[in-house]
Design a protein that fits this description.
The complex is a heterodimer of chains A (220) and B (190). Chain A has 220 residues and is mostly helical. Helices cover 82% and strands 0% of the residues of chain A. The mean pLDDT of chain B is 91. The chains are: A mainly alpha (220), B alpha/beta (190).
Chain lengths: 220, 190
């Protein structure tokens, strides 16, 4: 089981981090930084406005960056028959989905958290906001990854599923956003704890939901 | 433990249509069954049902032994070099030392997406033999292969049979192997 899971994780990470001509992990990162860079141009360089709204912008940018890899999270493996070959070897869809969830989070969240430092400089965030932002994203991104995986699995066998998945993720991410980004306005960590709780519940649910979706897609 | 595969009273429905029904079969070790029939009659569905990937509309399947499947999808990452793509399955099958067939050796550094249909099929066949499954389900194994490749598949199936395995293969073209049972799906069409 450990051997299988580590082989799967290695492959998934290689798949999600690998460049392969599709931009790889740098694409969400650059996208994230581009949003952080554009925002001051759009609302004007007033430091007070930027400092007050900048944290929320970082959250929105993180949310959108998490959507970018969704189309290659489940659909390619369904098309290639990878899940069928795994099932024949006794690897459950749930295990494959749990490993994929971890790989998905690893492929965007750590880079994103690192990119917050330059982003906070671009937005002029102060020293109090930054730890709250980092902590909040650390609590919230696993939930975003879990929602992303569930949606990617549900829409994998649909035509135009990629466009649909982005659209579906946004409303489902609202609770995490409210509590995670809301903590910035309150200036304490109670909201972050709630965002973390939502994340944990989603992470626990995601392998089963995604596994069931993959199994049902096979019957088509 | 001897490999075996048995199905009783299978029926398969795709959409609103029953493809076949009242199909029973039993395959023991050292047996090869050739499933024949026109396109769309349900050969692939039968193989997927036998492998447990598709739920039958009626009936049940019992399997003793691991299942290896070859179908039209290679299940090899298009962006990885062939060696790494095969390496993943070898790690999973706990067969890291399995020999790569000589005809694939020079392709190991080539990304899978640059391989031809026949080369991908050969790679999938190499994965199948490294898997050491005792039940082989081959869905159109000859598609895309040249004459040498066809001979190779026949040889593989023969070797698998001699070592005690069993094989169900679906092919609309003749399969160059002696002593096969033939199952014509048209007899079970609804």
């Amino acid at each position: 089981m450990i051997r299988v899971a580590s082989a799967l994780l290695l492959r998934d990470l290689r798949h999600l981090l690998g460049t392969g001509g599709r931009g790889g992990p740098m694409l969400p990162l650059l996208f994230f930084l581009a949003v952080a860079m554009l925002f001051p141009f759009a609302v004007g360089p007033d430091p007070q406005v930027l400092a007050r709204t900048g944290g929320g912008v970082v959250w929105i940018a993180a949310l959108l960056a998490a959507i970018l890899p969704l189309d290659r999270l489940v659909a390619p493996d369904l098309e290639l028959g990878t899940f069928d070959q795994l099932a024949l070897r006794g690897v459950s869809e749930e295990l494959a989905a749990a490993v994929r969830l971890l790989a998905h989070w690893l492929s965007f969240a750590p880079l994103l958290l690192a990119a917050i430092l330059p982003a906070s400089a671009l937005l002029g965030l102060d020293g109090e906001t930054l730890p709250l932002l980092l902590l909040g994203l650390l609590a919230g991104t696993p939930g975003l990854a879990a929602i992303g995986l569930i949606i990617a699995a549900l829409t994998a066998s649909l035509r135009g599923g990629a466009a649909l998945s982005g659209l579906l993720l946004v409303p489902l991410a609202v609770p995490i956003l409210i509590f995670g980004a809301g903590s910035l306005a309150r200036g304490d960590t109670t909201g972050i704890a709630l965002a973390g709780a939502i994340s944990l519940a989603l992470v626990a649910l995601a392998p089963f939901a995604a596994g069931a979706a993959i199994r049902s897609a096979r019957e088509h | 433990m001897q490999a075996s595969l048995a199905a009783t009273d299978l029926a398969c429905r795709r959409g609103e249509r029953i493809l076949f029904r009242r199909l029973s079969l039993s395959v023991g070790p050292r047996e090869v069954i050739h499933v024949t029939g026109a396109n769309g009659i349900g050969k692939s569905s039968l193989l997927r049902i036998l492998g447990g990937l598709l739920r039958p509309f009626a009936g049940e399947v019992t399997r003793i032994g691991a299942v290896g499947l070859i179908d039209e999808r290679p299940a090899l990452d298009p962006d990885l070099p062939l060696g790494q793509a095969l390496g993943f399955w070898r790690a999973l099958d706990a067969a890291p030392g399995a020999d790569v067939p000589a005809h694939l050796e020079e392709l190991l550094d080539v990304p899978v997406r640059y391989l031809s249909t026949g080369q991908k099929k050969r790679a999938a066949l190499a994965r199948l033999s490294a898997q050491r499954a005792s039940i082989w389900l081959l869905d159109e194994p000859l598609n895309g292969l040249d004459r040498g490749g066809v001979g190779l598949v026949a040889e593989m199936v023969d070797g698998h049979r001699r070592s005690g395995g069993l094989c169900v293969l679906a092919s609309h073209q003749p399969f160059p192997l002696e002593r096969m049972r033939v199952l014509d799906l048209a007899e079970f069409a609804a």
